[in-house]
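Observation: inputs received (chain + flavin-adenine dinucleotide).
Thought: call the complex predictor directly.
Action: predict_structure
Action Input:
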Amino acid sequence: MTALVLLEIEHGEVRQASRSAVAAASRFGDVDVIVLGEGAEAAARLPGVRNVLSAASLTHDLAEPAAALLAAHTSGYSHVVAAASAGGKNILPRLAGLLDVQPIPEVVEIKDENTFVRPIYAGNALATVRSSDTIKVLTIRGSSFDPVSKEGGSATIQTLNAPATEDFSRFVRVELSKSDRPELESARVVVSGGKGMKDAEHFKLLEPLADKLGAAIGASRAAVDSGFAPNEMQVGQTGKIVAPELYIALGLSGAIQHLAGMKDSRVIVAINMDPEAPIFRVADYGIVGDLFTILPELEKAL
Ligand code: FAD
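Observation:
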């Protein structure tokens, strides 16, 4: 069996979640990868990769042409795998549609080549699913598979010509937020704020704490919806899934949809004035009190 992994490249490097996808795919046998736009050289250095299919002309990760390109190159592959990132979740279901197979999203465990474990009901239950499709199309949760390292491989690079597709969508512009902080989904430490941060101005109080800990900053959906933090910081069922070594939740109740995105964190610290807040049920350490008093004390202690 051979798996084909759709890689995502950021700042010239293969994203950590994609390197986790390579690790997961290696369970099936040989691994080839496909790269849209630049980045074939970085992909070729990944250990365990046999061939890199490079579609340098597809520069903007538009889902329709990407899915069409993948569909044209799946022959001979038993599995197509991508990270369950915004890109993977955009492209792979379309590919599954084109191939007329069932996509298997957010896989957290591979039992065998046909059997996969994935969360359902906002992460409250795990379903074991078996697929009889001839080609399995799956996205994997990066936090559930240790990534392969960045260096060590020497795969061959094969250039692909992207097929012409109907003009369903077109690239307009990209707006990247600039941040020196670690990427939320792969950060070792995450400091997250909720509605209890009061407003956007007070939400910024998390920054010095995050700086001290080298942490990424996350937010609840309520905090995002209230304009305290940008959308890309949202953690949870409809946001990002994180599993850092340390997750510090401030002024955040711990709604089931939020827990779905962070409950696999190794150590969870919660600061909340309500002793009944559900976040304390998953927290390893809890501080009941006003975050605006505790936050400066914590920072000082650090
Ligand atoms: P609240 O529930 O309002 O909690 C604020 C907390 O702050 C309270 O516990 C309060 O005691 C505490 N607090 C207030 N002031 C202070 C203070 N001074 N000091 C200390 N503590 C204080 N939510 C997500 O987060 N992520 C998702 O991906 C997500 N997806 C969703 C998908 C669906 C389909 C639905 C229906 C909902 C989703 N939600 C999601 C929303 C979720 O249900 C909650 O509404 C949201 O998580 C609540 O955010 P919060 O904890 O910040 O706010």
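Thought: report the result.
Final Answer: The CA atoms of residues 271 and 287 lie 5 Å apart. The longest strand covers residues 30-36.
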